[in-house]
Design goal:
By secondary structure, this protein is α+β, with helices and mostly antiparallel strands. The protein has seven helices and four strands; from the N terminus they run ββαββαααααα.
Length: 136
């Protein structure tokens, strides 16, 4: 099932329950399954179960490892392979070759930003994003 929420005044979706949890939601967050007929999140048992699930330390480890890889070997695209976006990894390798390594400046900045963001921001920006090559 897919869901929609209102985030910063904009309707965001469709997304899965896991993607929805990357946003700062609580039991009173308005949720819709079709972009209309909004109801509080607590009326969806599957979303309440996901909301109350214990946070995984894998995400934090994943964020730190991806950030460090982006800083030290970012031109190889390893950070994207770690987060499950192999197409972005291949694109990064190609961009590094085409720009004679200058793409490494972008990945250095990206790595620093990855280490500075929260787990929820990291998930929303990189893990659950539908972008082929999420950069900043």
């Amino acid at each position: 099932m897919t869901y929609y929420i209102t985030f910063n005044g904009n309707c965001v979706g469709p997304m899965t329950a896991a993607q929805l949890m990357a946003y700062h939601v609580d039991e009173n967050t308005p949720v819709s399954t079709d972009g209309s007929n909004w109801r509080p999140l607590y009326t969806y048992p599957e979303l309440m179960q996901a909301l109350n699930a214990p946070a995984s330390s894998f995400v934090t480890t994943n964020r730190v490892i991806a950030g460090l890889c982006a800083i030290f070997v970012g031109t190889l695209g390893i950070q994207y392979f770690i987060i499950g976006k192999p197409k972005a990894g291949v694109i990064t390798i190609i961009l590094s070759i085409v720009t004679c390594g200058l793409w490494g400046i972008v990945t250095l900045i990206q790595g620093i930003l990855m280490l500075l963001m929260t787990d929820a921001e990291f998930d929303r920006k990189y893990v659950y994003s539908t972008d082929t090559l999420p950069v900043f």
